[in-house]
UniProtKB/TrEMBL annotation:
Keywords: ATP-binding, Nucleotide-binding, Transferase. InterPro entries: ABC1_dom, ADCK3_dom, Atypical_kinase_ADCK, Kinase-like_dom_sf. Residues 21-254 form the ABC1 atypical kinase-like domain. Transmembrane segments: none annotated. It holds the Pfam family ABC1. GO terms for molecular function: ATP binding; transferase activity. This is Chaperone activity of bc1 complex-mitochondrial-like protein. Signal peptide: none annotated. It comes from Chrysochromulina tobinii. GO terms for biological process: ubiquinone biosynthetic process.
Length: 383
């Protein structure tokens, strides 16, 4: 999370260290790599390939990726999971919990147990490459009507519980592409499509890829296409939750626009979604409202197009977050952790790209097309 958060949050030396964590890790020894591929895919796995590059082109905390070419000529990415990584996740999170409790660094209002419970569940989900293959195929179907996006096909014959092979997707990670020669108009277009994608995944698909790592979004300068990769962390949302959350987002946008009644709407929907219990004091309620308005500021009526490259929401919201951690009486519901990680990541991606986006128009278009759950009252929408 720290490796792709707002750069201003971290001291320069720590930011460099975190970028190294994101960009690479140690490789498996050749013998271990061969044993893993043979145990997962069978002795004849190489017979399906014309070539296989033994040196990984990427490595991270769960696995490493190798480039290969199939017999039919397609270039593919073969992701190989480190042996024993699932067991190490459980052990590492337990050790982290003991260390943090021992040092007393975390206030009770952070509800660390819930954070680690959700983190462990998601990290173990990312270790299940069969689940990731299913999510990848689902996203490929969902994105088929939108040619500006591409999702790789899964090569089933070279995939298993700990090995996943997909089509090779060309392009640069978003943060690296943004450092190139992208025009301002192209920056705005890319940022707009990324914001549209996040809102569409949540409110239309009700199925979201929740890891906003820069490297999961690739930009091809020649075709101007955005490729989406790595679907290990995905979450489905029930219709009632999505309806309530859309109402909250609209209330935040109206609060940022200075609309009357926005405070009552924000606090009502915050209670409905479990952010509040109804027993909070004025300090907590003020912090909840102020933070909600800040988050809604990109969608404010008089702020369009919103310049994400110049926004400082993460800095301005820090005081409210500190108050909420101190004053809140209940942890957020489970869906919120990964959802807010993706939405925060979307803002950070748009900031890295330096995009100016008519964010309100995108929100209103998604809101207008939303299919409301039959048991929920239909909202008329913002003016």
């Amino acid at each position: 999370m720290l490796s792709f958060n707002d750069a201003d949050v971290l001291p320069p030396a720590l930011r460099v260290a975190m970028e190294r964590v994101r960009d690479g890790a140690d490789w498996m020894p050749a013998r271990q790599l061969e044993e893993t591929l043979r145990s997962e895919l069978g002795d004849g796995w190489r017979s399906q390939l014309v070539s296989f590059e033994p040196i990984p082109i990427a490595s991270a905390s769960i696995g490493q990726v190798h480039r290969a070419v199939l017999e039919d000529g397609r270039t593919v990415a073969i992701k190989v999971q480190y042996p024993g990584v699932a067991d190490s996740i459980r052990s590492d999170l337990w050790s982290m919990k003991q260390l943090i409790y021992y040092t007393g660094l975390v206030p009770p209002g952070l509800f660390l147990d819930r954070i680690l419970e959700v983190a462990q569940r998601e990290l173990l989900q990312e270790c299940d490459y069969v689940n990731e293959a299913t999510a990848t195929r689902r996203f490929k179907r969902l994105m088929a009507p939108y040619p500006e996006f591409a999702v790789p096909a899964v090569v089933q014959s070279l995939s298993s519980q700990r090995v996943l092979t997909t089509e090779w997707m060309e392009g640069l990670s978003i943060d690296r592409a943004a450092k190139g020669t992208m025009t301002s108009a192209e920056r705005d277009r890319v940022g707009s499509r990324l914001l549209w994608l996040s809102l569409t995944e949540l409110f239309t698909f009700r199925f979201m890829q929740t890891d906003p790592n820069w490297s999961n979004f690739l930009y091809a300068p020649r075709t101007r296409q955005l490729s989406l990769i790595d679907f290990g962390a995905c979450q489905s949302y029930d219709p009632q939750f999505v309806d309530s959350y859309l109402r909250l987002v609209m209330a935040c946008a109206e609060g940022a626009s200075g609309a009357p009644g926005a405070r009552e709407a924000i606090l009502h929907h915050s209670h409905e979604l479990g952010f509040l219990t109804g027993k909070e004091g004025r300090t907590m309620l003020d912090a909840q409202y102020d933070a909600a308005v800040l988050v809604g500021s990109p969608f404010a009526r008089d702020a369009q197009p919103f310049d994400f490259g110049k926004q400082d929401i993460s800095k301005r919201i820090a005081k409210d977050v500190a108050t909420m951690i101190k004053e809140r009486l209940t942890p957020p519901r489970e869906e919120i952790y990964t959802l807010h990680r993706r939405l925060n990541g979307c803002f950070q991606l748009a900031a890295r790209v330096g995009a100016r986006i008519d964010a309100r128009e995108i929100l209103l278009s998604v809101h207008g097309a939303h299919q409301w759950h039959v048991d929920a009252p239909v909202e008329s929408g913002a003016a």
